[in-house]
Write a structure and sequence with these properties.
This protein has 6 helices and 7 strands; from the N terminus they run αααβαβββαβαββ. By secondary structure, it is α/β, with parallel strands linked by helices. It has a domain at 61-207: Rossmann fold (3-Layer(aba) Sandwich). The longest helix has 23 residues, at 14-36.
């Protein structure tokens, strides 16, 4: 009898079913919002944070401020490298065609949606970079190492020094001030970066040039 077979099919509890429906509804609404707002694949939040990869996006104001600083520092026709700083890259892309170019070095392959400007990057192999990424070919490098450890900073610093013609804009924890000076010769700025979700650690910006962040 058909009814007997149906008994073997596992049934979701009404609570689980309601939660699942709510999840799908939220997802549909989010997709709907993206469409109705003329959603831009470059906007912050188009790729959601993955905390397992130690990802924490800047809020809109901070990302804009850092992107604008990078554009000014790079100068007309300048090249900007964003190392583990995708929300700044996304802000730069919103200003696309304004006399500069940018690329993103990132471990998270979801950012490969940005095509040729995406470069897979693992800080554990700081100089494992494509051949066409020539040394000292970027007017400024903005970097946000994923972990607050000297090992991570030191390895990321190797990449930064390889890429930059000179200017460095580093974002990391306030507790890294001494190591940042040691490995990159950068000094802390007055500007305090903020994230879309509050972090437990105080975050700061560091530069090695006269910036607009003081």
């Amino acid at each position: 009898k058909m009814d007997d077979d149906d008994d073997d099919i596992p049934q979701l509890s009404s609570h689980t079913l309601a939660a699942l429906q709510e999840f799908y509804l939220e997802q549909q609404q989010r997709e709907g919002m993206k469409t109705s707002q003329g959603f831009n694949q470059y906007s912050i939040g188009s790729i959601e944070e993955d905390w397992q990869l130690s990802q924490f996006w800047y809020n809109d104001e901070t990302a804009s401020c850092l992107a604008n600083e990078a554009v000014v520092a790079a100068g007309k026709g300048g090249r900007i490298a964003c190392v583990s700083a995708p929300s700044v890259y996304q802000k730069l892309k919103e200003q696309d065609g304004k006399g500069f170019s940018a690329c993103i070095l990132e471990y998270d392959k979801r950012f490969s949606v940005y095509g040729e400007e995406f470069i897979f990057y693992d800080y554990n192999h700081p100089l494992n970079l494509p051949e066409n990424l020539l040394p000292h070919s970027f007017d400024i490098v903005i970097a946000d190492p994923p972990y607050l450890s000297e090992e991570c900073l030191q390895k990321t610093a190797e990449t930064i020094k390889y890429l930059t013609k000179g200017k460095i804009l580093l974002c990391t924890g306030a507790i890294m001030e001494e190591q940042a000076a040691k490995h990159l010769g950068v000094k802390i700025c007055k500007f305090i970066p903020k994230h879309s979700r509050n972090l437990a650690n105080e975050f700061r910006c560091y530069v090695n040039y006269a910036s607009g962040l003081d």
